[in-house]
């Protein structure tokens, strides 16, 4: 939506009526689907040491529609041992991952994703167990275990080591309730059979580990390092405690995820995964190691415990499995100018949560980078914008790691940063329309946390809410916009597409 464009009354029904396509069953099917729309580039001969990371970053930073990069013949490794970077860095590939039409706009796709996730949470599909699967094609135990038989990258010059755990899914089960959690946590290779595990305070996987440690026991885990996007995306999204990401993944794809029972842990291993391990996380009092540093998603070396005296847990690898010609899924974070997500699932979740919280007439939700959340509403009453702004920082999808919230009118497309900045420039009075909320939830990797708060493990920070809306009490007297209508712009773009190289929406 652009200026002078209002949400049609029947839009929600129209959006929900859009037809779906088959969801890719594994990472290879997804890559094939991306290749069919011309969004895959093959790179041979790259070095695992920094070069994969640098080329991935440059591609995301410099190209408006960065392709999925499939690295092969990596230095020191045989052909077929591959790394896939930037799998969902365009909204068209996000659409493919969800089985949605690729010709929809970013905002429409975010809405469709929200509906898909909502339906999956209401009607989850638990995994179905199968005797075996492709992930078990190669099996290593005991002295055979060496995760560095795989082309594990070191992404940045000051990284403390090679990181296999970026696009990973760690599965563990709560010993009290039986809740099966799946989470994405970074994992450094300390040795061929020992991985570092870094999890932020409050993460469900860490809580489950702690319950084992409190009993003096190691926590059994399964970790995958390459899978289809619809298994990975719930893994690094904030879902409520007790909601299994595997069940949601099944609900989103419309069929149960096939899993193999882990021979050592009894935990489910996604059968179509590229690479998996079984292992255990011993109590930190029994074994822990320095971890990092690691270039984190804010674009700084703001995490890691090297030299801090706060060593982190480890995973003792008891078995390694992988498919023939395995693919590591690279989702290593980069600075925000090199985005890895064309669309963010947390935006879809937030849209649904805002409506569930009773926020009326939400016209759009979009997350730019990681720290900027934009919500468009059609104002219905005085205080509506303030209610929406406060709800954003309260909803679980956006309660953590934010910095700025911008509330805009329904004529602003929240996915269009130019329009958002225009609204901030012309509809915000800095004296009355910027609200600062203190002591909000952040994380140890937030570079703006002061040293004294970091030392005290006070992982909180401030959030700023910009109310970039026409003042409700005199919005009818606000000057009219002077832009061409959305319909006219769309018509002339179609008419002159052969003359002017307009980008895809």
Residue fraction in strands = 15-25%
Uncertain segments are 1-19
Global morphology: globular
Number of strands: 21
**Structural Rg:** 23 Å
**Content-based structural category:** alpha+beta
Question: What multimeric state do the chains show?
Answer: single chain
> What is the typical, i.e. mean, pLDDT?
91
The CATH architecture name of the domain at 345-495 reads: 3-Layer(aba) Sandwich
How far do the termini sit from each other?
11 Å
| CATH top level label of the domain at 345-495 | Alpha Beta
Give the fraction of residues assigned to helices: 25-40%
CATH topology heading of the domain at 345-495: UbiD C-terminal domain-like
CATH homologous superfamily label of the domain at 345-495: UbiD C-terminal domain-like
Q: For the report, how would you describe the main beta sheet?
A: 9 strands, antiparallel
Count of individual helical segments: 13
Can you offer a commentary on this structure?
The chain starts with 10 loop residues before the first helix and ends in a 10-residue tail after the last helix. Helices cover 25% and strands 22% of the residues. The longest helix is centred in the N-terminal third of the chain and has 17 residues, at 106-122. The chain has 13 helices and 21 strands. The protein is globular, with a radius of gyration of 23 Å. Helix 4 runs parallel beside helix 5.
């Amino acid at each position: 939506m652009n200026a002078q464009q209002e949400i049609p009354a029947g839009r929600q029904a129209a959006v929900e009526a859009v037809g779906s396509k088959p969801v890719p069953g594994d990472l290879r099917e997804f890559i094939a689907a991306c290749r069919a729309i011309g969004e895959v580039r093959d790179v041979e001969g790259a070095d695992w040491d920094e070069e994969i990371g640098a080329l991935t970053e440059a591609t995301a930073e410099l190209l408006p529609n960065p392709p999925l990069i499939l690295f092969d013949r990596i230095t020191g490794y045989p052909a077929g041992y591959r790394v896939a970077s930037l799998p969902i860095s365009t909204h068209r590939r996000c659409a493919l991952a969800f089985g949605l039409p690729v010709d929809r706009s970013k905002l429409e796709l975010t809405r469709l994703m929200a509906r898909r996730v909502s339906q999956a949470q209401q009607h989850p599909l638990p995994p179905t167990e199968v005797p075996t699967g492709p992930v078990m094609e190669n099996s290593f135990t005991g002295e055979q275990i060496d995760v560095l038989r795989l082309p594990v990258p070191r992404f940045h010059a000051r990284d403390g080591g090679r990181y296999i755990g970026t696009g990973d899914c760690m599965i563990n089960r709560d010993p009290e309730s039986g809740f099966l959690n799946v989470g994405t946590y970074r994992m450094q290779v300390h040795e061929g059979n020992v991985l570092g595990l870094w999890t932020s305070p409050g993460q469900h996987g860490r809580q489950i580990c702690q319950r084992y440690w409190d009993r003096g026991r190691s926590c059994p885990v399964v970790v995958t390092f390459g899978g289809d996007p619809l298994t990975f995306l719930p893994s690094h999204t904030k879902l409520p405690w007790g909601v299994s990401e595997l069940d949601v993944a099944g609900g989103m794809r419309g069929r149960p995820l096939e899993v193999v029972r882990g021979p050592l842990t009894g935990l489910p291993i996604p059968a179509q995964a590229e690479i998996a391990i079984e292992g255990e996380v011993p109590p930190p009092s029994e074994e822990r190691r320095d971890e990092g540093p690691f270039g984190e998603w804010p674009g700084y070396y703001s995490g890691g415990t090297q030299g801090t005296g706060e060593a982190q847990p480890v995973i003792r690898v008891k078995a390694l499995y992988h498919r023939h010609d395995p693919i590591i899924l690279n989702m290593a974070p980069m600075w925000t100018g090199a985005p890895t997500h064309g669309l963010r699932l947390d935006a879809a979740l937030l849209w649904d949560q805002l409506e569930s919280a009773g926020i009326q007439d939400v016209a759009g939700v979009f997350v730019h980078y990681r720290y900027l959340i934009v919500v468009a509403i059609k104002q219905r009453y005085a205080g509506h914008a303030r209610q929406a702004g406060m709800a954003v920082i309260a909803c679980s999808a956006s309660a953590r790691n934010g910095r700025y919230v911008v509330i805009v009118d329904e004529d602003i497309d929240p996915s269009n940063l130019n329009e958002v900045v225009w609204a901030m420039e012309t509809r915000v009075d800095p004296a009355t329309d910027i609200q600062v909320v203190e002591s909000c939830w952040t994380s140890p990797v937030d570079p703006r946390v002061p040293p004294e708060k970091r030392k005290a493990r006070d992982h909180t920070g401030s959030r700023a809410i910009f109310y970039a809306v026409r003042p409700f009490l005199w919005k009818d007297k606000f000057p009219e916009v002077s832009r061409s209508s959305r319909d006219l712009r769309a018509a002339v773009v179609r008419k002159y597409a052969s003359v002017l190289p307009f980008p895809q929406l």
